[in-house]
Amino acid sequence: MRQYVAFFRGLNVTGKNALKMSDLKKTLESIGCTNVKTVLASGNAIFTAPQDLPKTLQQKIETELAKGYDYKGNVILRPIETLHSLMNANPFSSIETSPDTRLYVTFLPTPPESHAIEQLENFSVIHTTDTEVFSVLTLSPNSKTVDVMKILDNAYGKTITTRNWNTIKRMVGAL
After folding, report:
1. Helix 80-89 to helix 165-173 angle, to the nearest 10 degrees?
2. Could you read off the pLDDT of 67-120 as tens digits, one per residue?
3. Is residue 38 scored above 80 in pLDDT?
4. Host domain of residue 105
5. Predicted local distance difference test score (pLDDT) of residue 13
6. Is the pLDDT reported for residue 15 higher than 70?
7. 101 with 125, same domain?
8. Could you tell me if 37 and 114 lie in one domain?
9. What 3-state class would DSSP assign to 3?
């Protein structure tokens, strides 16, 4: 058995892919996951599962959600150790924040061919790995979260998902 985190793209966002977290929990349990915890209503879960290859487990989850709830998004799985490593690396430690600062982690399903990304006023990518992109946005009339999500989708495709750094901290705190 291994502990995983799952990030569900587009779940409960702007009225699309609406799913109660209790239903998400039931679905994960129905495919053999245990100790399931959901974090926030935006599609984040922590659970223990057999040590299937993450791709196989991801496909099982996506299939069950599509079948039971017509979910048309994708799931990105990471072993829990990945979140611990991200927290320990603390990629945002040198960033001065204000109430308008947003710290984001974008999870990629596979390593990209390139990390070339369009620039936006008050937005910068501060660090990349093979499967994560760390970025900072300072909100302004010309720079909003929705603009950043479009830039990230254009650069990496629509199978990615992005979380605020505070969400990652909450997930680690839920363990």
Report:
1. 120
2. 988 888 889 999 999 999 999 999 999 999 999 999 999 999 999 988 888 888
3. yes
4. 88-173
5. 59
6. no
7. yes
8. no
9. strand
Report d(CA 127, CA 132) in Å as an integer: 8
Amino acid present at 67? K
**What is the number of helices (H) and of strands (E) in the chain?**
5, 8
Final residue before a domain boundary, out of 82, 97, 125: 82
92 lies in the same domain as 32: no
3-state secondary structure of 122: coil
Which CATH number do you get for residue 60?
A: 3.30.70.1280
* Per-residue three-class SS string for 21-69: HHHHHHHHHHCCCEEEEECCCCCEEEEEECCCCHHHHHHHHHHHHHHHH
pLDDT over threshold 90, residue 169 = yes
- Name the domain count of the chain: 2
Do residues 3 and 79 touch, judged by C-beta distance below 8 A?
yes
The radius of gyration computed from the CA coordinates of the chain, to the nearest angstrom, equals 16
Residue 172 three-state SS: helix
